[in-house]
From TrEMBL:
InterPro entries, per the entry: ArAA_b-elim_lyase/Thr_aldolase, Low_specificity_L-TA_bact, PyrdxlP-dep_Trfase, PyrdxlP-dep_Trfase_major, PyrdxlP-dep_Trfase_small
The protein, known as: L-threonine aldolase
Keyword list, A-Z: Lyase, Pyridoxal phosphate
One MF annotation (Gene Ontology) recorded for this entry: threonine aldolase activity
Organism: Paraburkholderia bannensis
Enzyme class: lyase
Enzyme Commission number, as recorded: 4.1.2.48
Family statement drawn from the similarity comment of this UniProt entry: Belongs to the threonine aldolase family.
Cofactor: pyridoxal 5'-phosphate
Domain Aromatic amino acid beta-eliminating lyase/threonine aldolase stretches: 12-288
Keyword Lyase: yes
Subunit structure: Homotetramer.
Amino acid sequence: MTSSNRAPALGFTSDNIAGASPEVVEALVAASAGQANPYGADPYTESVERRLCEIFEREVDVLLVPTGTAANALCLSAMTPPWGNIYCHASSHINNDECGAPAFYTNGAKLVSVDGPAAKMDPAKLLEAARAKVGDVHSTQPACASITQATEQGSVYTVGEIETIGDACKAANIRLHMDGSRFANALVSQGCTPAEMSWKAGVHALSLGATKNGVLAAEAIVLFDRSLAGELAFRRKRAGHLFSKMRFLAAQIDAYLKDDLWLRNARQANAAALRLMQGLGGIEGVEVLGAPEANIVFCKLPEALIEKLLGAGFQFYHDRWGKGVVRFVTAFSTTFEDVDGLVERARAV
């Protein structure tokens, strides 16, 4: 992807800093004309539901919400009682970056961290944790597990790894939720089908991300366990996330899914991350910390180089994960010129 009519972008902090795909903006404009029934009884919402059933190769229930935090917390609220345990990796978004929303929406359920390499839960440790103190009235009880795809470290669960976690959840009699804020990036990285990376591997509910990948502000809760749909409908309304003009959320997701825009966007973001990793890896003093599996690159840079890049206007997170460790995130709108601009400046320094 190239763009010769603008200066290279300097922001690599997050894929949230990107705008929206033109197709999504155009769909919003089109949806604003005329009238449509409210609260999801509109043609756009019906189209989204139909597309997602086709994409996941089965009947699913779909609830649209404006944010990933709402999608995650609402899913979890229907999968656990207030005295339940939600098992997640210590570095997961629900554990660190949602301001206690899962506990708030579940009316007090407990997040229990389960370790594993590369920000991925260890299935054996998950099963061990989920079998502890079962039936003990003095302890919170196992209810569900949540995995992030792709993870906060940019790693991706393989289909086999998800299946193993799904088997552990089945053995422990708990449900499995997937925080798919970067589901599309993980999907194109793995080269599998959406069904294989979700319900066929044991996932009961998916927070299908879109905002990070070209949508203005919309996410989809996709329920493979359709018994959750009735309760979630009430919880969404009670939480204030049932839009009266739902067509504006649905129009975004509809355009996102149409003609595989979501997959094309994810491929561009992933390709930009790979190009960035390859470019930085050839610079003396730069240590790339693992090959990117999605659109996130971690590396260790000399302090002087970090200061020079920041001074030149480049934006990225640094020193959160250790001295000299930086994170670069590419987006669907990140061009190869954007990447090359950063690499060239780093090489010059």
